[in-house]
Amino acid sequence: MRKRKSLVVAVGVALAATAGIAPATATDTEPVVRVIAKGLDNPRQLSYDNGRLYVAEAGRGDRKCIGEGPEGETCIGLTSAVTKVYWDGGAWKHHRVVRGLPSGAAPDGGFATGVDGVSALWGELWAVETFAPPEAGVPTTPPWNKLGKLLRVDRGKAKIAADISAVELKHNPHKASVESNPYAVLALPDGRKIVADAAGNDLVAVSKHGKARPFTVFPDHDRRESVPTSLALGPDGNLYVGELNGITDRPTARVWKIDPRTGRILGWRSGFGPISGLAFNSGGDLYVSQLFRGVVTKVSGGKRTNVKVPFPAGLAVDPHDGKVYVSAWSVADRDGTVLEGKRTPGGQIWKIIGF
Q: Which residue in 174, 230, 277, 314 is a FRET match for 286, CA 20 to 30 A apart?
């Protein structure tokens, strides 16, 4: 797997910022937080469609470990999944609609990468898998051939719909080192899918017929590469992209505004710590997960307000009632991971009411 811990910077700062965070209790003025799903393996991107919430579980690796170096070993396995979270019989429930997909993680199962992105639209479900080059020592036989691909999830199976990493390998749009990590996907109403390649620093557009091509290349800024991690379609019809650029105490990360037809950059909004999730409500308010600051930020006009969430990642908003959903403890598997000598809770989904 490429750069398994490339998303993990300033962990000590992040742990200090999120230590002791628990779901909030109800007040007249503050948002209320509820945990609606537990026991998830590194939950990342979320997508809401027709009353159901879908989460990309990056997995927890497994017992076979490969690689040495500053990032340590990566333990690989078929533990990644896409999971449906839904309300039924007076309670929140969840089950994996597809499982057994490639994953790589730290030896304790934390900081995984695998299926990191998911997008559901009108009953169709899509996911993206990270990439591993042949020299990494990862198997290449099925289902490992799904690495670097856009997947169509249907009836418990994930089928290859397009080769995302092939765009990086052929074109290298950002013209830096040749690296690929398909990390987020967004299905558009016109049938196209947009994929954010975090390691490639670009977006890839996939046609209805599965043809993948370069779409948007993000420039470096503040002496750092962009690293796009999250996607959302705004009420104005434009595409919005969150990036990981920056560190917690230097909020240089941007939300980019993109023309969804041409891929042209139309502008940006800055002042965020590393971003790992985006969503809009029907009124046009923007929600931003700031992974290492341990907050979800609501941007409403010129005002920003925060709710504390430990290691927040994917975001989704119910368009009917405005409830906000977020992946919490997104760098941990179901058993938690160890940070600064302390074990975290396992991966969760939180529901935020009144935010």
A: 174
Task: Give CA 255 to chain center in angstroms.
Answer: 15
State the average pLDDT over residues 155-182. Answer: 97
- Does 18 score more than 60 pLDDT? no
Write the CA distances from 152 to 35, 97, 119, 125, 310, integer angstroms.
29, 12, 10, 6, 30
Computed over every residue of the chain, the mean pLDDT equals 91
pLDDT tens digit sequence for 261-297: 999 999 999 999 999 999 999 999 999 999 999 999 9
Residue 57 one-letter amino acid: E
Which of 304, 203, 198 is CA-nearest to residue 243? Answer: 198
pTM for the predicted model, two decimal places:
0.93
**How far, in Å, CA of 108 to CA of 60, rounded?**
8
